[in-house]
From TrEMBL:
PANTHER family: ATP SYNTHASE GAMMA-RELATED (PTHR23318), SERINE_THREONINE-PROTEIN PHOSPHATASE 4 REGULATORY SUBUNIT 3A (PTHR23318:SF3). This is Serine/threonine-protein phosphatase 4 regulatory subunit 3-like central domain-containing protein. InterPro entries: ARM-type_fold, P4R3-like_central_dom, PP4R3-like. Pfam families: PP4R3 (PF04802). The lineage of its organism: Eukaryota, Metazoa, Chordata, Craniata, Vertebrata. One of its GO terms (biological process) is DNA damage response. It comes from the Eukaryota. GO terms for cellular component: nucleoplasm; protein phosphatase 4 complex. Residues 23-232 form the Serine/threonine-protein phosphatase 4 regulatory subunit 3-like central domain.
Length: 235
């Protein structure tokens, strides 16, 4: 069955145009893989990786079809859950060839920021994936290199400015320039992820906070009419 699935995937991933059916089909196979024995599940995801699933998802996430993007996000979540190091390795490699604004991880951040759901359900899911990717607890260390050092250096150089852009844009004055409920929810999510970074990325986040004057910007949010945002700094 796995061999037959591989044959199907080889067709799907090499298609220039991805339909809702095709991407949902791939998503369902990823969901099915959770029922496999560990050895078969490893083979499944390694096959997807070897066939270029991450570059394919990068293309799909850039499409206008919201249904296709949603399914692609679910597939991405399975990959992150299976092997975050594999995803981190891919995004660091592509940074050597692509501009920051088209990097896969920055596309994920942009989709989080631009979520149109009033409850930001998609943004919450994406924030969880980002937190997994920047969590040092699941990063590898070998005799030759430390994934934590390499990836966090990459993330703060190429991605952190995308994540903090809404915060910096909304705190140029003494009060938030936009203080509607959805904006407040988004800023609260960003602060939650920044808090995680403060707790786990001592060196990198310290330098970023100082260089970008993040603390002063966060204090501006105390003037928000939304208590959940004004109090986020204490979480």
């Amino acid at each position: 069955m796995i061999k037959k699935a591989v044959a199907v995937f080889s067709l799907l991933i090499n298609l220039v145009l991805f339909s809702v059916f095709q991407v949902n089909f791939l998503k369902e196979f990823c969901a099915f893989s959770q029922t496999l024995q560990p050895q078969n599940r490893d083979a499944f995801f390694k096959t997807l990786s070897n066939m270029g699933i991450l570059p394919a998802l990068e293309v799909i996430l850039g499409m206008d079809d919201a249904q296709v993007r949603s399914a692609a996000t679910d597939i991405f979540s399975y990959l992150v859950e299976y092997n975050p190091s594999m995803v981190r390795e891919f995004v660091m490699q592509e940074a050597q060839q692509n501009d920051d604004d088209i990097l896969l991880i920055n596309l994920i951040i942009e989709h989080m920021i631009c979520d149109t759901d009033p409850e930001l359900g998609g943004a919450v899911q994406l924030m969880g994936l980002l937190r997994t990717l920047v969590d040092p607890e699941n990063m590898l260390a070998t005799a030759n290199k430390t994934e934590k050092t390499e990836f966090l250096g990459f993330f703060y150089k190429h991605c952190m400015h995308v994540l903090t852009a809404p915060l910096l844009a909304n705190t140029t004055e003494e009060k938030p320039s936009k203080d509607d409920f959805q904006t407040a929810q988004l800023l609260a999510l960003i602060l939650e992820l920044l808090t995680f970074c403060v707790e786990h990325h001592t060196y990198h986040i310290k330098n970023y906070i100082i260089n970008k004057d993040i603390l002063r910007r966060v204090l501006v949010l105390m003037a928000s009419k939304h208590a959940f945002l004004a109090l986020c700094k204490y979480d």
